Amino acid sequence: MNRAAGAKKLSLSKISIYLFLGLASLLSLFPFYWMFVMATSPSAAYNSIPPTLTPGNMLVENFQKVLGQINFFQSMWNTIILCTVVTLVVLIISSLAGFAFAKFKFPGKNAFFIAILLTMVIPPQLGLIPQYYLIANAGLLDTLQGVMILFFLNPLGIFLMRQYISESVPDELIEAAKLDGCSNFRIYRSIVLPIILPAFATLGIIVFTAVWGEFLWQFTVLRDPEMYTIQVALASLSNTFKVDFGMLLSGVFWATVPLIIIFLFFNRLFISSITDGAVK
C-alpha cells in the first residue's frame, strides 16, 4: 500500500514537472511564433485588437518588400563572415588563455584573471567613444575588421574555458605528456582540445548569437550600405514615419533562421557540455 502511494506521489510529481516545463517551453517559443505570424500578415495586424494569432498568407510578399528596401543577402553574408571569424578567434584565444590560467603557474596569475573578469562589469557604452577613436585612427571605419576586433577578447569565454579545463583535464595527464617530451602547445592541441569540444560548442553558440544580435557597435562603425550587417540593415527599414511592421518582422524572421539552424546543428554538443558540468 505504501509502495503504491509512493509511486503515485512520484508519478504526480513527474507530471507536474513535465507540465511546468511544457508551459515554460510554450512561453519561450511564443515570441518566435508571434514573429512568424506578423511576418505573414499585413502591417495593420500589428495593432489589431484582439491580436492576430493565426499566420497569414503574405510571407513572400512581405519578404519581397524587404528585398526592395535593403540588400538583404549581402547584409546576411557580411553578418555570417563577422560572426564566424569572431567565433573562431574567440574560441582559440579563450581556450589558450583558459588553459594557461587553469594549468600553469606564473606571477600575477590571479590578478590578471580578476582584472579580466572585472571588465565584464563595465557597461560597453562607456567605452564606445575611445573605441571609436582608436578604430578611426587605425583606418578601420566602415570595415568588418573594425567591427570584429572589439569582440576578439571575450572575458566570459576565458572564464568558461578556465573552469571547464580545470575540471575536465587532469593534472596527471598533462604531467605525463610533459614527461613524454610534449611541448605546451602540443599538449593543448593533442590533449586539451579533444576534451573541451563540448565547451567549444557551448561557447561558440553563445558568441555567435551575441555578435549576431549586437547592434550598437556595428551601427557606430558601419555607414556604407554595402558593409551593413543584418542588424544595421534591418534598423534602416524603420527610418521612416510609417513603419511597415509586416515587412520589418519578415526581415527579422528570416534573419533569425540561421541562428536556429546553428543551434540545432550543435545542439547535441551544447547539451553534452551542460550535462558534463552537472555530473562533475
UniProtKB/TrEMBL annotation:
Location, primary (coarse class): membrane
Coiled-coil region(s): none
Domain of life: Bacteria
Domain ABC transmembrane type-1: 76-266
Pfam families with a match to the protein in the record: BPD_transp_1
A GO CC term attached to the entry: plasma membrane
InterPro entries reported in the protein's UniProt record: MetI-like, MetI-like_sf
Localization terms from the record: Cell membrane
Keyword flag Membrane: yes
Sequence intervals crossing the membrane: 12-36, 76-99, 111-128, 134-153, 191-212, 245-266
GO BP field: transmembrane transport
Record's bilayer topology term: Multi-pass membrane protein
Keywords on record: Cell membrane, Membrane, Transmembrane, Transmembrane helix, Transport
PANTHER family: ABC TRANSPORTER PERMEASE PROTEIN MG189-RELATED-RELATED (PTHR43744), ARABINOOLIGOSACCHARIDES TRANSPORT SYSTEM PERMEASE PROTEIN ARAQ (PTHR43744:SF2)
The family this protein is said to belong to: Belongs to the binding-protein-dependent transport system permease family.
Listed name of the protein: Carbohydrate ABC transporter permease
